[in-house]
What we know:
Blueprint: E1 16-19, E2 22-26, H1 31-41, H2 49-52, H3 54-64, E3 70-74, E4 90-95, H4 98-111, E5 116-121, E6 134-140, H5 149-159, E7 160-171, H6 177-186, H7 190-193, E8 210-218, E9 224-231
Parallel strand pairs: 3-4, 3-6, 4-5, 6-7
Antiparallel strand pairs: 1-2, 7-9, 8-9
Amino acid sequence: MTPARRPANRILKTALHKDDGRIVAIGRIDEDVVKVAYRRWAPVYDRTFGKISTEGRKSAVRHINSRKGSVLEVGVGTGLALSEYAPHLDITGIDLSPDMLEKARERVAEEGLTNVKGLLEMDAGNLEFASGAFATTVAMYVITVVPEPEKVMRELARVTRPGGEVILVNHFSQTEGVRGWVERRMAPFAELIGWRPVFDVSRVMVCDNLELIGSEPLKPWGIFTMMRFRKRTVS
C-alpha cells in the first residue's frame, strides 16, 4: 500500500514545537517542499519579496564590496545581488532551486557579469567546496528556509577561510507583541510560504569557531537583521 501523502500546503503539526501552548520553533522543512515553494515564487520573486529585501541586500553587499577575494553567496535565488558586487570580487552563487537559478543565469548573461564565476545547484547543508575556499560567505534570507539551519551554519563556517567573514541577513522572530502574535499565526503555513515565520536567533549561534562581530536591524521596520561573524584563526 502506498503511504498517504501529507498535504503539500501545510506543515505537519508535529513539527511545530510548543511551550505552554505557544509555538516556539518550527522543525524540518523538506527540501522537496522548498523547491516546490520556490518554483511558485520564481516568476514573481523580484517584484514581491525582492522589493522588501532590497535594503538588507544592499547593506550586505556594501560591506562585502569593502573586502577582497572570493565570495560565496548561498541561496543566490534569482541573482538580485549579483550586479551590485564590485568587479574586484570573484562571485560564486549556489541555490537549491533550479527555477531560481535559471533566472539568475539569465541575469548574468544579460548584464555581462564577468566576475560571476559560477551558479550551481547545491544543497546549502552539504556544500561541495573545500574547507576555507572563500574569503567571504554570505547567506541572505536563507537560514529560515533550509531544512537544517544549524547544519548550514556549520557548512558556512567550514568553507570560509580563517579570518574571513560569514554574513547573514535574516528574519528572527519575536516572542511578544503584535509581530510575535502574527509570526505564530503564520507558523502552520511554513511549507506553503517556503520559510519559517518563527525562528529564534539561537539557531545560528552554533559554531564555536565563529565570533559575532556585528549585528544591526535593517529597514523596513527592523524586520530583518544583518549579522557578521569572523572565523577564528587557529592558534
